[in-house]
Amino acid sequence: MSPYIANLVVFLFILGYGAVSVWIFRRKRARRQTMPPEEFVLLRLPGETQQREIDRVSEALDNMIMFWAPISLVLLSVPFWLRDLFPRANLLALLVCCLVLFIIAIGVVVTKTAALLEERVNRRLGYRGERHVAEQLQPLTAKGWTVFHDVRKVQEKGQENIDHVIIGPRGGVVVETKTYSKPRKDTGKKDLVTFDGDKLIWPFYANDRKPLEQVKRCASWLQNWIRQNCGVETPVFQMIAIPGWHVNAGQHYEPRVASGRAVVGALEGLMAGQKEVLSKKDIQRISDKLDELCRDVKD
Fold it and tell me: What is the mean pLDDT of the chain?
């Protein structure tokens, strides 16, 4: 086969692949922009942020696969193109240079792909954990509580959301969900996490204070937000839910730490000794404002 024909085949392949890629990209964007005659602004669901991050990572993986194939083909075919343009060029040197570039590119792609795949696995695990805890909290609505999920913190640095917010006669409760996979090595206590009032002790990490700092920060923010936006002064209690794990935690620590299935019992135990501080009117006012805050889903 003539080298010109081979180059033409490669060129047509790249051109066709690029056209298909552009078509797929435009179709994706068109689907995002498709709207019904009446715009729906929906309430955030449990794990809304995690789901959006999963979609982002999946799209990044699709794009990497979509654009890597033609790029790799170009890198491997460049020496032959250059040889046709410059007959006196050293073909072996060109091949070595392009092979090195190809190996570097492969290394970058594999590293990024592995990181994206690991992130997607972790995001999916977190999403399932938040959904599980949300299902456990659902019966509280029949007892006079209002429950919101994935509440956005406004006027804050960074992108931090509160997994679950509960409002009732005895005040507010912030519930942060922490979902981790079990350790691969057998430690003898591979499904037990202990809370000693100061830190979480996991089989793979014995000094975990970040969830405690996070839930405290979220509770403080919510208390200030209710005061500023609703004109109501109310206590906001703290809880950490750990789905899929056995939890060994003291009964009188704050935040309260419980497994996913025990979160409602732990919450009721936490609130049992508290006085009613919110009237039905206060609860309705806070709920309305939280609804406004969480009703921002348009796509």
Answer: 83
